[in-house]
Amino acid sequence: MKDRRLPPLPALRAFEAAARHLSFTRAANELGMTQAAVSYQVRLLEEKLGVPLFLRRPRKVTLTDAGSRLAGRAGEAFDILAEAVSDIAERADETLVISCNTTFATTWLGNHIGDFQMKHPALAVRLIPYNFNRAFGEDDVDVAIVAGTTVEPGLTGHLLVSAAFTPMLHPGLAAAAGGIARPADLLKLPIIGSDDPWWRQWFAAAGIDNPDLGHNPVAEMGAQMLEAHRAIAGQGVAILTPFFYREAIARGDLIQPFELQHDNGEAWRLVYPARHRNQRKIRLFRDWLLPQMPAASSPPAPAFAATGGDRRGATP
């Protein structure tokens, strides 16, 4: 392994700039330092190397032979570093990585992201499943779309869609049961996700405090969207957020038998580190997404803590 013990980087940077300009003053202006600070850093480097790098004359400095040799190699090294940093920054700015909640991705974003890409063809998009344990820790995630109720410090959150929920089912299933006239009529049908707290919350809002849900088999689907697919297949009644199933209602695949939607404070939000709020790619995506959301007029929340879930704050 090569010996990479180097003098302090600030000293090398000061020397390289001074050598390029043959002026401590112009080097100081470039680096945002004082002339005295540049001179001090060069002195440190000379002491470290044990040789003079500049010949100092009134109103003029020139490089010694050692200074000339070091200046050429140092300039090359800083050019290579600058190119590498620029390349990484450009590549990072060319790709937007979105970590997205499963239901939002499959019912809305997947159907609309093409419009964003058409508007910004130079910006590649990578969509990955939301992972609560490493939202911004890995995978170079730029923004996340998550479901939850509160906000973590350091994140900016924009409200997108309230998770207000209501029972929905296939019209054929409702007809087979003789119609759904009252909330209690739903209890005659299979309840999908009967252990979901949303059910008891909705029934309580409808005036039924202790609905009999125990006879329904428990099946943890892991995402609201999967429960919607079961409802569309006529397998039971699902408790869903209507915003995501407007097309299914328009097609006649689902009906919403009651106007009552219960809002328990959960919502989907766009979140990203507050320090990155002015990044161009984040700004472009935010400015495209928010106007299309029901809650577009809501101000950003300063600290949103995602629970990680589609519902109950527990599922992706």
From TrEMBL:
Coiled-coil portions: none
Gene3D superfamilies named in the record: Periplasmic binding protein-like II (3.40.190.10), Winged helix-like DNA-binding domain superfamily/Winged helix DNA-binding domain (1.10.10.10)
Stored SUPFAM superfamilies: Periplasmic binding protein-like II (SSF53850), Winged helix' DNA-binding domain (SSF46785)
Keywords noted in UniProt: DNA-binding, Transcription, Transcription regulation
Superkingdom: Bacteria
Pfam families reported in the protein's UniProt record: HTH_1 (PF00126), LysR_substrate (PF03466)
Region (Disordered): 296-316
Domain HTH lysR-type: 7-64
Family: Belongs to the LysR transcriptional regulatory family.
Identification of the protein by name: LysR family glycine cleavage system transcriptional activator
Species this chain originates from: Rhodobium gokarnense
